Amino acid sequence: MKLIDLSMPSSTTKKAKNKYLSYFKRILGSRLQSTNFEDTEHVKNLITRKLGASKSPKYGSKNSDILKFEQLYNKLTQKRRNRATSKSDLTSALYVLYKISNVEAEKNDSSELLQTLLKSSDVKEENKEQDMEIDGPHYKNQNDNKSGQFQFLKSFRYRSQDISEEALCKDLLYVFQGIDGQNISFSILEDSFVLAPNVNVSESTRKLVTEMCELGWLFKKVNDFMSRNIDSTYCDQVTQSLCFAFQTELTEFYRLIAILENQHQNYDETDALNCLNLRKLYLYIQEPMERMKWLAIIVDSIEGLKGGTIISSINSYVLHGSPSTKFLLSKLLKEVSAPIMTMIKTWMIEGELNDPFQEFFVSMDPNVPNDLIWTQKYDLKPSMIPSFLTNDFARKILLTGKAVNFIKKCCHEEDWVLDANEQIPFNADTFSSDENSYSTLQNWVDHAYKVTNKELIGLMFNKYQFLQHCRALRKYLLLGQGDFIQNLMDSMVNELSKPAGQLYKYNLLGILESAVRSSNANMTDSEFLKRLDVKLLEASPGDNGWDIFSLDYKLDAPINTILTPELIIGYLKIFNLLWKLKRVEHSLNKTWVQQISYKNELYSLKEIRSDLHRCNLLRNEMLHYINNLHSYLQVEVIESEWKKFQEDLDHAEDLYDIMRIQRKFVEVIHKRAMLTHEHIELYQLMVKIFEQIHQFSRTQDILYSSALEEYHKRQSVMDDGEEYSQVISPEASNTLKQLGKIYRVNFDKFNEALSTLEIDDKSLSFRLDFNEYYKDSRERENVDHIEDDDDEEEEEEDEDEEENINTDTFKGPHGKGGFQGFGSH
Fold first, then answer.
1. What whole-number distance in Å separates Cα of residue 816 and Cα of residue 743?
2. Angle at 621 between CA 615 and CA 626, to 5 degrees
3. pTM attached to this predicted model
4. Mean pLDDT of 627-641
5. Going by C-beta distance under 8 Å and a sequence separation of 6 or more, which residues neighbour residue 311?
6. pLDDT at 744
7. What is the pLDDT of residue 422?
8. What spatial distance separates the first Cα and last Cα of the chain, rounded to whole Å?
9. What is the pLDDT of residue 106?
10. Rounded CA separation 610/630 (Å)
11. Residues 146, 133: Cα–Cα separation, whole Å
């Protein structure tokens, strides 16, 4: 209706205006369309040229008509932005106006044009109902949709308002501080400051004002962030430091605004040099806008972050190519890093962790007791490590603080103070991300790390005698004190042969003390001997004392931080294997002593001489296996690893290094001694061989006992002048033969598995078959099998020959040779 009022003379009646309105609705509901429908600028240019060529005196000059059209176009454009109307609607409205102007191009007056158009409109109005009936719902929907275009045009009901450049500058100075001006206000819907749509300015001016309004939006974003955090009791220290850094930047910004306001108030248009206009204002705010833009970027990037992650986020922008931007970001990074640097200094010097907001990269579990300070109480939070610090560097900081706490709380050296700050000064407040500051921090941390851990290692080695404890473990749990172990074994034979239920710890402790006093172990410091103890394992049905007995070594704080209970279990596992091996060796030596003691009596019985010879060969073969296995474990495994262990300790830098070296020492022994899970089959074969040796010793005892009994009976008969012809029972002899075969089968399996096993060296396999006797025996056996296949008629003779060979060389059922004993070749 406003368009009609502007286009028609003031004398036009209301009835005529309603007719024009009806006609315009019909036009808007029509299908008039431009070939360049989407080109708004093109339609605008067509209308402008049309107005320029018009001769109508209604609106005065041509320039006046063009100016009014420009004002109308600006209103339509602003309304479209505010109401999110599509661009096609604006183009349609302009095209309607253009087509209307062309209907009666030869008529100059707009009223005459509208009168002409209404003549045809009256006819169409009479047939309106008929058209709707014909077109049906389609026409209605189309009319409704196009009527929205008219409503769009109708909505521009504000009259144009001219505004001076001075007033715009004044409003912009308010906007820069996040305050609404008279003509520029913040739109929540668009999330920006916008110029009022009824303000009559050129498109270029509007665009310039819109660009400068961005500074107000950036300021508002930064200021809102500061308002939320700067006075909050729940804000972490790094965020508060960032807010104060922002406050410093905004102070400089406020100073610039004050200067601009002074220039705006004190100078007018008469002083063109000092007068503030939009173009000058635009130039003045370029640098502040760039700085404010980076502040807003940081606000967005740290959303939901805290502590070290905020520092990492800001540090990711520091390598920007612009010197001014890099200077700004480095300045902010220096401010936000100050709380973390202070925490680092306090943690490394005093061992205190003042981190109420959990923003430091070292965390503490308050529920863990002080005995576990080194292993469980403190830990790293990798996500909180600032990106300019490496993980190794953060680990040094963690270990230094741990060492300080360990010295004071576990080693009871409360008066010890780190003097690193006196030798290498470091000010946490002046730290920045440049190379010099980082180098200073690195040197200070390295120095504090070395001084603190050197003090801690000195306490562990001197005050708490760590190395002496390791030597005690080497002597007693790894059977390095030979005379003590031999005395202990001899003293405990009778006690450990009892069933497990009949064993008592106090009896075993008495035997242990006797073994210590009767050996060179008595020379050891009582501080270590009192830690030596007896441990009885959980018994299973049928177990005897040998199965559940074990030595133990008791440790307390702080030495048990390195020699942990888990590590002592590893030592006991090695002791278990060595103790079994020592028991087998003791059993075989006992049978040899028995044979030597009754040699004359036993060999006087001719019918058992072959059995005695078989016992001698099998025992020597078993001794060869046991002695070489024992020598391999004690010399090539334990002793060589002990030497490496001592050398590595000389290069340890901190307590973690000592723990790692100690753990490595035990783990390597486990691997080379076949005690790991991957060597389980080999270990089981070893245990089987041990049991067969024990069975051999029991069988020989039975054989010797029966033989001695027979000998004494025969002697008594001969003294009486009677003959005695009783034959010794062959059961022991048959058992002995069977044991020899089974032993050689298991021995060959063990040796074969050992030769293919990936251990550090092949020395044990070489020891067991140093003269390739077993290899030659296998080759001879293969030849025997070939001969058996070629000549079946001689099968029985070959079996007899094999029996004779078995009597001398004890070949196994698989044709593998057995060791004949020392000097048997």
1. 11
2. 120
3. 0.68
4. 93
5. 238, 333, 336, 337, 340, 386, 387, 388
6. 85
7. 55
8. 131
9. 40
10. 30
11. 19
Cα dihedral 560, 564, 569, 575 in deg (nearest 10): -50
Q: Helix 731-756 vs helix 609-631: angle between axes, to the nearest 10 degrees?
A: 30
145 close to 161: Cβ distance less than 8 angstroms: no
Dihedral sign for Cα 516, 521, 523, 526, please.
Answer: negative
pLDDT, residue 429, reads 58
| 269 vs 275: CA distance, rounded Å | 6
Higher-confidence residue of 162 and 106: namely 162
Residue 252 near residue 219, CB atoms below 8 Å:
no
Q: Is 161 helix (H, G, I), strand (E, B) or coil?
A: strand
CA-based nearest residue to 197, from 65, 73, 344? 73
Query: The tokens 């001592």 sit on which residue?
Result: 646
What gap in Å lies between CA 155 and CA 141, rounded to an integer? 21
Query: With 70 as the cut, is the pLDDT of residue 121 above it?
Result: no
* Cα–Cα distance for residue pair 820/619, rounded to 1 Å: 9
**HEC states along 407-467?**
HHHHCCCCCCCCCHHHHCCCCHHHCCCCHHHHHHHHHHHHHHHHHHHHHHHHHHHHHCCHH
**Alpha helices (H) in 605-730, listed in sequence order:** 609-631, 640-649, 655-672, 680-720
Three-state secondary structure call for residue 471: helix
439 residue type, one letter: S
Q: What is the largest CA-CA distance in the chain?
A: 174
Q: How many CA atoms lie within 13 A of 696 on its CB side?
A: 34
Distances (CA, A) of 270 to 165, 273, 276, 715, 774: 14, 9, 11, 151, 118
Res. 243: pLDDT tops 60: yes
Spatial separation of the C-alpha atoms in residues 83 and 187, rounded to whole Å? 12
How many other CB atoms are there within 10 angstroms of residue 352's CB atom?
12
Across 84-198, the runs of DSSP E, i.e. the strands, are 161-162, 184-187, 192-195
Euclidean distance between CA atoms 242 and 309, whole angstroms: 13
The continuous run of DSSP H or E covering 313 comes out as helix 308-315
The H-assigned helical ranges of 482-564 are 482-496, 505-517, 526-529, 545-548
Q: How far is CA 235 from CA 312, 484, 621, in A?
A: 18, 66, 79
Pairing mode, if any, of strands 362-364 and 378-380?
A: antiparallel
Cβ atoms of 669 and 692 closer than 8 Å = no
The C-alpha atoms of residue 508 and residue 28 are separated, in whole angstroms, by: 113
Contact status, residue 199 vs residue 183, Cβ threshold 8 Å? yes
Main-chain phi, psi angles of 680, to 5 degrees = -60, -40
Cα 777–781–782 angle (5° rounding)? 120
